[in-house]
Amino acid sequence: MNKFKMLAAGFLMTAAGANAQNAYDALNLAKTDPIMGTARYSAMGGALGALGADATVLKDNPAGLGVYRSCDLTLTPNVYVTDDKSVGFNINNFAFVLNFGKSGHKKGYVTSSLGVSYNRLRNFKRYYTFRENGWDHSMTEDFFDLATDKVFGAGKDLGLIDAQEENGKDVSATSQFRLKDEYVDRRIKFKEDGALDEWNISYGMNISNRFYWGVGVGFVNIDYTQTSSYDEYGLNGQGDWYKDEYYEAKGTGFNFKFGAIGRITDFMRVGVAFHTPTFYNVDQYTNTNMDYNNQSHNTEIYWSETEYDLQTPLKLQGSLGFIIGKRALVGLEYQYEDYGAMRLSDGSFDFDEEKDIINEYMKKTHTFKVGTEVAIVNGFSGRLGFAYVTKPVDEALSEVYNTTYSVALPREAMYYTGGLGYKGKSFYADFALVFKNQKEYFFDYLPIAEPISKESLFSTNIMATVGWRF
Fold first, then answer.
1. Does the pLDDT value for residue 113 go beyond 60?
2. CB 238 within 8 A of CB 245
3. Which of 161, 244, 251, 422 is 20 to 30 A from 342 (CA-CA)?
4. CATH number of this structure's domain 3-135+182-469
5. Does residue 160 come out as left (phi exceeding 0), alpha (psi in the -120 to 50 range) or beta?
6. What is the pLDDT of residue 261?
7. Residue 386: helix, strand or coil by DSSP?
8. Coil, helix or strand for 186?
């Protein structure tokens, strides 16, 4: 079977794969975008874990609240452009920080802050299409070996599979009218939409202006949809048929965050943070549709609803901050996550097979961030940043796992960031540009050894923050 025959065969994989919880689904819902937040945070590549006093630190290192010396109210709208040139809008961050004022002490308790923030952790939106003309094969010719009973039965009902027997077997109807020198055209479409959002409630304290600690709780919401479509166009107006898969996941979860910052010298700060896994409860809905020459009034051949629990990896974070007089800041940060620690369950038993797959094929990821801020003139600053995230999954997963829908296996990602900021007596405003280069392998199904494409997806985020400190 050549590459494209294998490609088409993927849409005939067991329908159980479309409604079961699997390692790929877990990874897709667990991944976040590591540098989205306020415009200042994003422009500096998200490397503020040891510097604090920014509304986005509530999602990274709540000890940054201890650095605050005043109350803060901030809002960050964001416009993003995806790789297919579609445009979207969201709120990246909204936060209110209540500072309890200075105690007047130089030792012990100095001040503390309570913060509430909203952060967009990830935009799922993307679209991919693949077209091939003059294909010397019909997917229906693979129904006999790879289709489920429901797909095979629907194929017979629709006439895609001829009820007559040839050499003791049913045959593909399209293969009967496809002559020697005639071919079929096909198209694959893959669409994702939705978002991952988090609300945080955190508290941070300043001890002796040398040590800052913080704790927080996060409440996360998942809203994700995926549509995978296969269309095949036959000869002389015959053989036009399609098979669609729809997947929807909605859920809520919670996590806890703990952090500390040490002011080693006036020049240098060190930060550490620990995030527990996020514990999700997910409602999942899937359906499969197929039709041939628009003859069916009810194209749905299968659907399912299920509920399950997902546990994401814990996160460890270490950071350094350097304060160069009143002229510049430099931030360095490292984050560690082990996606092999993800777990799935439905409340009655653990998914032992999925656990083995996750342990073997999901990888430890390392995120590196660097950012700088330099004062230009009084009140105005310029910022630059960079972040790099290693791949979270071994591509060998594509040869051992079954799905009936298209799959995009993420690889490494790079972020190039920059921006400008203005800070007045109480009002401040920031602007940032974030360019993301996400590498991925795209498959229209699993298992298969080679992807349809090895892509570099480019997206742009344009954001602005307005805030008041009082």
1. yes
2. no
3. 244
4. 2.40.160.60
5. alpha
6. 98
7. strand
8. strand
